[in-house]
Amino acid sequence: FPQTFDKILIANRGEIACRVIKTCKKMGIKTVAVHSDVDSSAVHVKMADEAVCVGPAPTNKSYLNMDAIMNAIKQTGAQAVHPGYGFLSENKEFAKRLAAEGVSFIGPDTHAIQAMGDKIESKLIAKAAKVNTIPGFDGVVKDAEEAVKIAGEIGYPVMIKASAGGGGKGMRIAWNDEETREGFRFSSQEAASSFGDDRLLIEKFIDNPRHIEIQVLADKHGNALWLNERECSIQRRNQKVVEEAPSTFLDPDTRRAMGEQAVSLAKAVKYSSAGTVEFLVDSKKNFYFLEMNTRLQVEHPITECITGLDLVQQMIRIAMGYKLQHKQSDIPINGWAIESRVYAEDPYKSFGLPSIGRLSQYQEPLDLHNVRVDSGIEEGSDISIYYDPMISKLVTYGKTREEALKKMEEALDNYVIRGVTHNIPLLREIIVHPRFVSGDISTKFLPEVYPDGFKGHMLTAGERRELLATAAALYVAAQLRSQKFLGDLSRQWELCVELDKGVHMLGVSRSGNNYTVEIDGEKVEVSGEWNLASALLPLTINGKHRTLQFKLRVLSKLAASLSKHMPEKVPEDTSSILRSPMPGSVVAVSVKPGDNVAEGQEICVIEAMKMQNSMTAAKAAKVKSVHCKAGDTVGEGDLLVELE
Known about the structure:
Elements: E1 7-10, H1 14-26, E2 30-35, H2 43-47, E3 50-53, H3 66-76, E4 80-82, H4 92-100, E5 104-105, H5 110-117, H6 119-128, H7 144-154, E6 158-166, E7 169-174, H8 177-195, E8 200-204, E9 210-218, E10 224-236, E11 239-245, H9 252-268, E12 273-281, E13 287-293, H10 300-307, H11 311-319, E14 336-343, E15 345-346, E16 353-354, E17 357-358, E18 361-363, E19 371-375, E20 382-383, E21 390-398, H12 401-413, E22 416-418, H13 424-432, H14 434-437, H15 445-449, H16 461-481, E23 492-499, E24 502-511, E25 514-519, E26 522-528, E27 537-541, E28 544-548, E29 553-556, H17 557-563, E30 577-579, E31 584-589, E32 596-597, E33 602-608, E34 611-616, E35 621-626, E36 633-634, E37 639-643
Parallel strand pairs: 1-2, 1-4, 2-3, 4-5
Antiparallel strand pairs: 6-7, 6-8, 9-10, 9-12, 10-11, 11-14, 12-13, 14-21, 15-16, 17-20, 18-22, 19-21, 23-24, 23-29, 24-25, 25-26, 26-27, 27-28, 30-37, 31-33, 31-36, 32-35, 33-34, 35-37
Helix pairs in contact: 4-5, 7-8, 12-13
Domain Lipoyl-binding: 565-644
Cofactor: biotin
Enzyme class: ligase
């Protein structure tokens, strides 16, 4: 490695701080971690050579606290700062302050950060650099005939929308002249009645868009490369969930065109370092500039897998003033890589509301070949309300997409996370979904595939039998281990297993490590090593290899017959009792006792992990009591407001 910096401060936390430290270690560079007081024993702090506390838990007092971070730089003599992503990574003020102190910012210069950070300015620069932008008419459309003329210039399909619009009102999509005339008429009537304003705008409608981004790398000598694309269409609430490189959708010509436009934009703003240009791509492979992220992206590992480059190492070299080592023709696409973002969140609540807790058990599937896990936590770590709920980025690689997907399936099955609710059930369903497997995806994938929200894996009759049989066999193996059945030499047991509120009677017989379980007249053969201390059970069920981790209730016949005498808990009336769906802090309370509220009216706002959630009334009612005020910290299930 050429001589770069002696010491780098990483102005971030969690997995990205750990990721940067790994490359620094490889390059022989000393590292400084910064941390908030609650992060004092975090993994990134343990990994770094030195660590400085920069304030209390809230991000604005610690990881965004520029004064404290500048002091940490002075105190440790760090010569450069890597900002990671988020926090101060795209903050031009921070970059300016570093420059004033003669400290290198491992990223682009302030001009590029500013130009690309402004939505309007970035679109103008992109247009001037001959980058495709979403075509539209900048002005108000006079009448239906003018609408047809403009639509003809933009090209179908177009979206006609109310200037004062919102909530989908006064919006029409037109695919031809006739629909444009009709759409103009309907939209202006709707807009007039909804907003008292009938002014309309027209822009190109991007049907079923894909979100595809191009990774660029540029040095301070005017050289720039594009490092292929990443397909990031699987999203929820505009946040990426699964990403892959390359995309199944692009052909070499479209890829090159997108790459060349991304590079010309980078050159237009004299960009240096790693950056990403995001595009929307329609069903006909037309692509349009969305924005440029002037930093390292969360999903950079998949690009590293298929190109063989270490992007953090490249960023450090570039910041030191070295020229790029590669030419465009050197950049390959080798194989296929997929990344699943593993979050501490409940996937059954609007595809994922944050969940907090301590990781009581945590095992990454690293014994599998071609699996990379970028994480910043370990067994015993706390997932807190103050920071992003990401547990890790699970990346699998293969010669083909099929191979990478198969490996992802295996990796998700072998990943052990206990103590917090996590989204592995959702990730596991996405990667085997026929639409995903065939590459038929768009940014609407999740709402289209799960219109009523994610309900979990629907067990087939065969899977249900396998699960019940394994639970029964596991129960017997555990009982034999503790010699509960010592006097019972029959080798035949009758058990009850509960699954999805149903109770199933099973007969179990055993010979050695093999169990035969009878369910509703069907036989299931289960065999394996039965290592009860392990969180993962590799078993053979009816001749097929399976990996299991689960929790089910198993009772002996006697216990089951007694359980019907146990009292049942009566569920509470959720329509009149409002509880916090997650841990967080109360931002605002909009009602007081005695107020009348309408169904769907906002009652209060809860903020957690940088997300604001509006809590609304489930029915029209009178407010009986209010149990929280702005500024309060609440836990999941805490009572907020009671209605009569």
